[in-house]
Amino acid sequence: MKLIEVKGYQEMSARAADYLAHKVRISKKITLGLATGGTPEGTYRNLIEDHRQNYTSYRHVTTFNLDEYVGLAGDHLNSYRYFMNKKLFDHIDIQKSNTYVPRGHVLDIEQECLDYEKLLIDHGGIDLQLLGIGSNGHIGFNEPGTPFDSKTHVVELTPSTRKANARYFSSLEQVPTKAISMGIATILKAKEILLLVSGENKSEALAQLLEGEITEKNPASVLKIHPFVTVIADHAALSASKVRC
Ligand code: F6R
């Protein structure tokens, strides 16, 4: 696991966007795994800026998002499909038909999980997966206790995750209780993983990842067994870790 320490959120976002844009430019065809939430927003802003300034093209790019809330349709303001369209896809030249986000508003949610997992395999898997981390160590929406061999599945969101995400909703009650998420095994199948961590509220989770044991109690700890992981973390996120660079 390679650790890159940066000053703060802006530098993390700029470094991550450079990394992603470079990969996109040098590939003939590439499948990116994408995340939502506050962490990657700055990265997406930088990618849009790079697309405008340097004409980096996304015509050959396919994307698969990590997760989606159960019960929210793609045009719901809080759905992750809507987030991705507004924060990235609407501003670059990617073909929308090549962007996949699990569908949270379907009758058969279990079938959607199976279909999403199959779709990923049919597309040859993910070349580069972008990840954020929850303050409880979750990756995707794989909460503590999720089996490491899990595939795309329906998850029950913990009260702490719902509380953390309530900032995007009008009230805590509005935050869905369930989500579809790629499983841990699904995430680990990515050829390469780029984890972004910013802020003091993530410092315990990051210290647990860098210094703690590999355990299902801390989903992110599984990243230590993946052969190609880069972590870009800022000073605040590293404030509880002994490991520094
Ligand atoms: C989002 C996702 C989550 C977030 C995590 C951190 O697609 O998979 O694991 O990365 O909850 O969220 P933020 O970035 O909002 O702190």
Can you put this structure into words, describing what you see?
The protein has 7 helices and 10 strands. Helix content is 32%, strand content 18%. The chain is globular, with a radius of gyration of 17 Å. With 245 residues, the protein is of the alpha/beta class. Helix 1 crosses helix 2 (38-54). The two termini are 12 Å apart. The strands form 2 sheets. It has a 7-stranded parallel beta sheet, covered by helices on one side. The protein has a 3-stranded antiparallel beta sheet with strand order 4-8-7, with helices on one face. The longest helix has 18 residues, at 9-26. It has a single domain, classed as 3-Layer(aba) Sandwich (Rossmann fold). Strand 2, helix 2 (38-54) and strand 3 (61-65) form a beta-alpha-beta unit. The protein binds fructose -6-phosphate (F6R). The site of fructose -6-phosphate has 14 residues, from helix 2.
How would you concisely characterize the structure shown here?
The chain has 245 residues and is of the alpha/beta class. The protein is 32% helix and 18% strand. The model has no long low-confidence stretch (mean pLDDT 97).
List the topology elements.
Layout: E1 2-6, H1 9-26, E2 30-34, H2 38-54, E3 61-65, E4 67-69, H3 80-87, E5 99-100, H4 109-122, E6 128-131, E7 153-156, H5 159-165, E8 178-181, H6 184-188, E9 192-197, H7 203-211, E10 229-234
Parallel strand pairs: 1-10, 2-3, 2-6, 3-5, 6-9, 9-10
Antiparallel strand pairs: 4-8, 7-8
